[in-house]
Design goal:
mainly beta; 1 helix; single chain
């Protein structure tokens, strides 16, 4: 009987202690889980402006018999400023971002040099670019704690409005305009600004684009030995500001 009473007392004490512990635990403050940091969502479309510099290389040969294939000048550089607008759209897949972008820019890249023998060294050849347009795909990867930086590669098709001029002072001066078509490829980075939860936001970018237009004939005057084939390529470095919506 005594052992039974002792066992019942132990059980009662254990139950009371457990209830007291539960009551104390219930009174303790509950620690909230740490907040999850918001990250940037790059899916959507955008418009922007950009500007920078362009420099390139051009060479030419004559295309009129009997001088076909002869270089008319030594290869020379063209350079100038570039400024324009951009429109594009992105789609995010986890850390990757795929997109398409079109930009149209005004440029004043140009240069003029003298011809070389057997042509008249008093004559000149000039090349001028008026505008450059590229339509490119983009593949990017988001980095940073909030996915704020997008590193990307890009490539596609390019066009340019060009004018070539050949002059022999006091005799003639002819100009021909052509739209050039080629390819473009490059890389860059884009940095998101503001708050990642914002509906509309801004970003800044810096990119390098190589453009190659290959060769194209310029028919100045079929009756003269002034028809030329020009090769042209460009290197573009520019910064931009985009508005995402």
């Amino acid at each position: 009987m005594r052992n039974t009473l002792f066992g019942a007392g132990v059980v009662t004490a254990l139950i009371a202690g457990s209830a007291g512990t539960s009551a104390v635990a219930a009174d303790l403050p509950v620690k909230a889980p740490p907040p999850v940091a918001a990250v940037w969502e790059w899916t959507g479309c955008y418009v922007g402006v950009s500007g920078g510099g362009t420099w390139g290389r051009t060479s030419n040969v004559d295309t009129t018999p009997p001088f076909v294939g002869l270089p008319v000048t030594n290869p020379f550089n063209v350079k100038g400023g570039i400024v324009g607008g951009t429109v594009g759209c992105n789609y995010q897949i986890r850390q990757w971002v795929i997109g398409i972008e079109n930009d149209l820019s005004w440029t004043n890249a140009r240069a003029t040099v003298n011809e070389i023998p057997p042509f008249s060294t008093a004559a000149t050849i000039g090349v001028k670019e008026r505008w450059i347009d590229t339509l490119r795909g983009r593949l990017g990867y988001k980095v940073g704690a909030q996915n704020q930086l997008l590193l990307f590669v890009t490539g596609g098709v390019a066009w340019a409005g060009t004018t070539a001029t050949t002059c022999l002072p006091g005799v003639f001066c002819n100009s021909v305009s052509n739209t050039r078509t080629g390819w473009a490829a490059g890389a860059g980075g884009e940095w998101a600004l503001g708050r990642p939860v914002a509906r509309n936001w801004w970003s800044v970018k810096l990119e390098y684009i190589h453009v190659d237009f290959g060769g194209k004939d310029y028919q100045f005057d079929p009756t003269l030995t002034t028809n030329k084939r020009f090769n042209l390529r460009n290197e573009i470095v520019r910064a931009g500001l985009n508005f995402h919506f």
